[in-house]
Description:
CATH superfamily of the largest domain: Aldolase class I
Bound molecules: flavin mononucleotide
Structural class: alpha/beta
Number of domains: 2
Strand content: 5-15%
CATH class of the largest domain: Alpha Beta
Oligomer: single chain
Amino acid sequence: MILSFAPMEGVTSCIYRSVHAACFPDADRYYAPFLAPDGSGKVKLSALRDLLPENNPRGLPVPQILCNRAEPFLALSRELAAMGYEELNLNAGCPSGTVVPKHKGAGLLLDLDSLDRMLADIYSRCELKVSVKTRLGVESTAEFPAILELYDRYPLAELIVHARDRNGMYRSTPDLNAFSAAMEHSRAPVCYNGNVLDRRSYNVVMSTFPALDRLMLGRGAVTNPALFRILRGGEPLAANELRDFLDRLCGALRESGVQEHHVLGRLKEVWYYVNHMFPGADRELKRLNKAGTLTDYRAAVEGIFASGRFEPAAAFPGALPKSGG
Ligand SMILES: Cc1cc2nc3c(=O)[nH]c(=O)nc-3n(C[C@H](O)[C@H](O)[C@H](O)COP(=O)(O)O)c2cc1C
């Protein structure tokens, strides 16, 4: 089973990925949050820094590109190849209201003819392996068979399916029935993504699709960073290792030279998920949200761990249907 850490913009930066890999070395792959090149394939230096090999000492992630034309994709792919990358991922899933109207992310699925032309160009000219991370559709998961038929014309290195349509954003219940078309017909190796948040949801997906051998975990793994180990049959998360992970993350963010308020912002972003491991610690978590300095932050973290509310079986909230029906 190949278990991948999903790209999460604003959360799974190179610093997060490196600290996670050091503390919880059970993820097979990390996908980096999207790069959004301009028309000539240029991206901000700060975005490229996230992918510099020296900033990814525990192994290179798979970079992801968000664009709607082959040219910028190909130009950026050459730059990434020169940095040592061998595989790229195309984002066909971002549901954001600022992205979709530009026919990027899940907006690529609005016009399959144009996506077809873009993929034809990319797959005939890109020297790197290219995988796709897709939604099941824009308005409806019923769009998926036509989308899948299009992907099947190209040699995708992998087809990662976030089993929702764009309208479902991150809230709708993943549609396992619609996803099953990928298991039945895709020529490319298929990776399932969406609401695998704990052992129970993992079992639902695996009992529905016993042949599935690739899973991508996002919010569940940020909430419980030991989730990869747990799904492989390992020990549950212990409070002290979560504490150690968060302390190391705080230290690494500080050492990176980022300003204190940015460090705080990034840590709070992580706590937006981790807070679910402490059900009922509302007062202590509120204090963390209000922290204006790292000193306040550390005191709040101390209070959260001292509250005795840590619940190793807790998870990010989210549902999956009991079967593929
Ligand atoms: C805050 C946030 C940022 C995300 N950033 C990206 C991204 O950069 N690229 C991408 O393909 N998906 C992105 N996603 C989607 C996740 O990779 C994943 O597909 C989604 O969260 C569903 O998986 P999960 O239920 O395991 O979280 C993001 C999701 C969230 C919540």
